[in-house]
Amino acid sequence: QVQLVESGGDLVQTGGSLSLSCAASGNIYRTDAMGWYRRSPGKESELVAVISSSGSTRYADSVKGRFTVSSDNTKNSVYLRMSNLKPEDTAVYLCYVHRSDGDGPHRRTYEHWGQGTQVTVSS
Q1: What is the largest CA-CA distance in the chain?
Q2: Angle, vertex CA 57, rays to CA 33 and CA 44, nearest 5
Q3: Residue 50 region, left (φ>0) first, then alpha (ψ -120 to 50), else beta?
Q4: Rounded Cα–Cα distance for residues 79 and 58 (Å)
Q5: Interatomic CA distance for residues 30 and 45, integer angstroms
Q6: Can you tell me whether residue 80 is helix, strand or coil?
Q7: Following DSSP, what letter does each residue of 89-115 receive, concatenated?
Q8: pLDDT tens digit string along 20-76?
Q9: Any residues with CB less than 8 A from the CB of 55 and at least 6 apart, and which?
Q10: Which residues pair with 25 in a beta bridge?
C-alpha cells in the first residue's frame, strides 16, 4: 500500500502565496514522477504541475510563471510553491505519484492519488 499525505491548503487573498507539501510512504520501489492535479466544482481535473525523477517539469499553461514544483526523492516528497494566486486557482489540490517496480519486461507501473487539500483564493 502507498499513502500520500498532503498539507498546506489554506484561504489566501488574491495575489498571495501558498506552499503545498506531499509525502508518500509505503511500498515504493521507484518513483518515476510526482506532481499535483486540481479539481474544482463544474470542471474536470486539471494537471497543475509534474516533476520527473530526473528533474524535468511540466506545468499547465494557466500556472506557468506563478507555480513551481519541486521534489525530494530521498523523502518521496513533492512540493508546490504557488505565487500571485488568483480566484480561479481555487480548487482541491491532489498529490499524484507515478511509480514502478521491476525492470524491462517485468516492469509494472502504478498511479496513486492523495485525498486532496483545499486551496481557496478570495477576491
Answers
A1: 52
A2: 75
A3: beta
A4: 14
A5: 25
A6: strand
A7: G-EEEEEEEEEEES-GGG-EEEEEE--
A8: 999 999 878 788 999 999 999 888 899 999 999 999 999 999 999 999 999 998 889
A9: none
A10: 3
